[in-house]
Structures are given as C-alpha cells and as structure tokens.
Amino acid sequence: MLPDAVKPPIVCETSRLILRQFNESDLDSLLAFRGDPEVMRFSVTGPETREDIQTKYLPSCLRRYSRDGLGQWAVVRKSDGECIGECGICAQEVEGGREFEISYRMRRDCWGAGLATEAARACRYYGFKQAGLPCGSALLEAQFRRGHRRARSTASGKHVVMRGTDWFDAPRDSRSTFARVKTDGEGT
User: Which candidate, 77, 58, 70, 162, places its Cα nearest to that of 123?
Assistant: First the structure.
C-alpha cells in the first residue's frame, strides 16, 4: 500500500470500485490482465509483456492524463484494494473526427460480476458531468457480443447507433469488423 502522499488521484468511485490514475506500482496488476490472451482477445495489440506495459502502455497513460485530462484508469476493488482492471475515457481519431471512447478490461476472475458495467457507467457519468464531453463512443469487434450488450446498457438506451467499419488495412479475409456505439449525454 502506498503512503497517502504518493497515492495517485482518484478520478471517480462507485459503491464497489475506485477509478484512479495508474502509476509504476501497478505494473504487476496490469500484467495480470493485459498479459492474459483471453482478456486481450478483442484487443488490437494482443497480450502484452511486462516490457510493453512498462515502456509503452504506462507512458501512454501518463501522456493522456497530462494532454487530455482523461485516459485509462486503474479499477480498484474497494473491498481489498486490488487493481482488477482498467476503464477510462480516451480521445480517439475516428473517421477524421475526435471521439471520446469509454473502454475497459478486467481480470478474468472478475468477469460476470457487473464490475465492467459499473466502471463504464462511472466513466460515462464522469465524462458527461465532470469533464463536459458532448458524447462518447466505443469501438467494438462485431464478435464481442458481451461488449455490445454492455455498451447498450452503459448508454442507458440513449441514441445508440451501431455501424460496421473495417479495422486497419488488413487483407480482406483477416479484417475484423468493428461497430461504433455513440451515445449522447442526456439522461446520465
């Protein structure tokens, strides 16, 4: 446990979770889910190594915090203080415009407990009410049905549009189809 003077800032919290900025002490926790092939199955990067996380992912998080005031945040379970995943809001370039995407990843042993939905809803509330974002998006692989349901649930049924797009310039037979879910901030 870190002394209070060096604890990363809390961004938001729910009854079961704290969302806070990542720091170097989170490396092992990050590796537990970002290094897991099943957790990273729908990721563009695939599973990551300790070196990837330390030299690419963590510095990227810190840059986003500094540049956008947003980013992927550590999802910490209040009951035991463990970092069990990540959830946050990241600015993405999509079809020539800037979109704010809510995304998440959780350790496999935390799947099915509603924690990802709870964290995503906290991010949605933070984005619309605290950060003043006009809308949010999610880029989801078409085969990731649980993610589509969670995106619709997180959106509270407000202005949800799903549309397929091609991901990168891969050969036709290896393309993944992604859907875009866009929600307005009303009713949050």
Answer: 70
What residue spans define the domains of the chain? Answer: 4-184
93 in Cβ contact with 86 (< 8 Å):
no
pLDDT tens string 20-59: 999 999 999 999 999 999 999 878 788 999 999 999 999 9
Assess contact for 84 and 77: CB atoms under 8 A: yes
123 pLDDT higher than 70: yes
* Angle at which helices 145-154 and 115-125 cross, to 10°: 40
* Measured distance CA(156)–CA(158) in Å, rounded: 6
131 versus 176: the higher-pLDDT residue is 131
Taking a C-beta distance cutoff of 8 angstroms, is the pair 162, 181 a contact?
A: yes
- Superfamily assignment of 4-184 in CATH? Gcn5-related N-acetyltransferase (GNAT) (3.40.630.30)
For 39, other C-beta atoms within 10 Å of its C-beta total 19
Contacts of 78 (CB under 8 A, 6+ apart): 13, 15, 16, 17, 18
Distances (CA, A) of 31 to 24, 58, 77: 12, 11, 17
β-sheet bridge partners, residue 102: 89
Closest to 70 in 3D by CA, of 57, 87, 56: 87
